[in-house]
Design brief:
2,3-Dihydroxybiphenyl 1,2-Dioxygenase, domain 1, 4-stranded mixed sheet, 3 helices, 4 strands, alpha+beta
Length: about 90
């Protein structure tokens, strides 16, 4: 199983640098484990609000920015299962 990686510089090159961030120019990445239903509901809300977001890893993760350019991630991946698979390699 490939967990994949999100690369903000590749997906949102105009957002990198985070000049307006409160963290001295460093983007903070905050991730939440959510259900698939919550991820899809959130994507729909972001779309209705006309906000930029990105679905990744076969639509198991959703990324978006707040007004300070911090990266938020909603992730449906079963981390324990994925780590178990990796440990069995």
């Amino acid at each position: 199983m490939s967990l994949g990686r999100f690369n903000a510089r590749r997906h949102w090159p105009h957002r990198t640098g985070c000049r307006g961030s409160r963290e001295n120019g460093i983007a903070v990445h905050i991730a939440f484990a959510v259900s698939k239903a919550t991820l899809l509901e959130s994507a729909e809300k972001l779309k209705q609000m006309n906000l930029e977001f990105f679905l990744a890893r076969s639509d198991t993760a959703l990324y978006f920015f707040d007004y300070d350019n911090h990266i938020f991630e909603l992730d449906t991946t079963d981390l324990d299962g994925a780590l178990g698979e990796l440990a069995g390699m």
